[in-house]
Structure prediction request, 608 residues.
Amino acid sequence: MTDLTTLTIGEAHALLKKGEISSVELTNAYLNRIAALDGQIKAYLTVTDTQALAQAREADARRAQGEDTPLLGIPLAYKDVLCTRGVQTTCGSKILEGYRPPYTATAIRKLEALGAVMLGKTNMDEFAMGSSTENSAYQITCNPWNVERVPGGSSGGSAAAVAARMATAALGTDTGGSIRQPASLCGVVGLKPSYGRVSRYGLVAFASSLDQIGPFTRTVAEAALMLNAIAGHDPLDSTSMALPVPDYTVALKEDLRGMRVGVPKEYFIEGMQPSVEKAVRSAIEHLRSLGAEIHPVSLPHTDTALPVYYLLAPAEASANLARFDGVRYGPRISTGAMWETYRQTRGAGFGPEVKRRIMLGTYALSAGYYDAYYLKAQKVRTLIKQDFDTAFAQVDVIACPTSPTTAFKIGERVDDPLQMYLSDIFTLAVNLAGICGISVPCGFDELGLPIGLQLLGPAFGEERILHAAYAYEQTTEWHTRLAPV
Amino acid sequence: MTHCDNSLLPAAHAIIAPVKLPRVREENMTLSLEEVEHIAELAKLALTDEEKSRFREQLSSILDYANSLQALDTSDIPPTATVLPLDTVLRPDVPRESLNREELLANTSRKEDGMFCVEAILD
Prediction:
C-alpha cells in the first residue's frame, strides 16, 4: 500500500470515497509520521492527537451516512496565530503561553464544517514577525530539504509540515510574504488571497490592513480546494468582502493561450541569487510555450515597498499588540501597580523582534514624527497600489521570483534585522496593494534547495493566478519531488 | 478613510508629556538614549540597558533606510489606510449570543466576581 502521507487532498478523497481508506487510518499515518519526524523538523508547537482522532472518527461516521465533501476526513495543520477553541494558541510568543481561546477562527470553522481534521498548531515567528521562523519563542523549525536551513517565515511551521508530509495541507497567514516566502523556501504551493477574500476573525492581528489567511499545499489544485473552503464574507470581520465566491477549481486549465503575463524589471535585481533568476526566467519562457503572451511591465515604486512596509506594519502592530498586558490572558508579572505591571509583563513576554517592531511603530506614530513617517508611508502606499493598477490594465497576471534567495542557514541573518527584512523584498508590495499572489515550485538551486515562481493577480483575481500556476505545474515536474525526510 | 488601527495611541500620548524632539530626524544620527526611553514608555515596555543600547543602533539604521521615502514628492497623493472600498460597516442592531463568560475568564490569572482584576491604577 502507498504511503498515505504522500497523497494529495484529491487522491486521499478518492480513496476515502471508495472506502479503501478511512480518515482514522489517514490521520494515524500523519500522527505516526509527526511522532517519528517532528523531533527533527519541529514544525508543530502542539499536536492535537486525541482531538484529531475524534474528528477523524466523526468524519468517517459522516461519510458512512452518505455525506461527502472534498475535505471530509482530510488532516490539516493550522498556524498557531489562528484561534482554536480550547486548544492552546500562542502566536509563537511567551506572552500567550497557555492561552486557550474561547472561540475558533472563521477560516478553521469553515474547514471543520466540511469535515477537515486538525492535526495540530504550527510554529511561527512570534506574532508573525519574521522571515525565518527563528523568532519563535519556543523552537526553531528546520527546512525539510536541508535541516541546517530555515523554512522561511513567518509561517515556517506550516510550510515545513506540508513539505515534510506531516499534514496534507495547512493554513498560514501572510502580512508581507509569510505564506509565499516559506512556500518558496520549502518547495510547496503557498497562496495569499486578496485582502478581504478570507475572514480574519480569530486571526490574532499583526497588521490589520495587511494580514490575510491562506493555504499551503503540495499542488495548485489543492490550493483551489482550500480557497473554496475558506473564502467569503463573514459578519464577524467587517473587512471581509461580500462578494460571490467562485468555484476556484473551475479555473484550473492547462491552456494559457491569450493570457497576458507581465514581467516587472524591478523584480530582477542585482544581488539576487543567479540560480533563482535563471529558474524564474526559464519558468516565464515555459509560460510562453503554453500560449501566454509575455510583456515587460514596470512597477516603478517597488523599491519603496520595504521602507513603507517597515513603517506601516510596525505602526499597526504597536497598536494591535497593546492588548497584551497580562490582565485577560497570558502570564502576568504582578507588581501591585498597573502601569509597572504592564511594563514588566510586556518586557518579559515579548521577544526581541516584537519589541523592536513595537518600538519602531510607536516611534513612527509618535507626536512629531507621524507626518514624516506614518502619513508619508501611507501616501507612498497609494503609489505602490497605483503601480499595480496600471500594470493590471495591461496584463492579466504578473510573474516574478518569490524570494531573492533559496533557504538560508539557520542563524545567518538573525543579528541583522535589515538583512532579514530583505528576504521579503519581492512579496511586501502585494500586501500593501491588497492583491493576491501564489508561489509555486519552479526549480532547485545547485544545493538542491527549492525555488519559487510568484504569480500575482489583481484584487479578487485568484482565478487568474490559479489558472497560470496550474498550467505551469501540470506541464512541469518540480512539484513531484519530495523533500528527503 | 480613517486610521482605524491607532486609536489607542492618542490616549497614551495624553498621559505622558512628550519630550522635545526634532520634527524630522537628521540622517545618520543615532537615536538618543532619552528618545529610546521615551518610546519604550509610550509602548509600556520595560527594557534592559542592553536592549536600549541595541535598539538605539538598530532603530536608527532602520529609520535611516526609511528616510529614503522623503525624496518622493507626495504632496498631491492621498494616503491609503485600507485598500478596500469600504466605509464604516454597520450591522442590524439585533442581540445575538455572546461568548461564554466562564471561557472568557478562564485564561486570566486573577478574577473576582466574574470580572478581570487589574492592579492599582492610582499610586
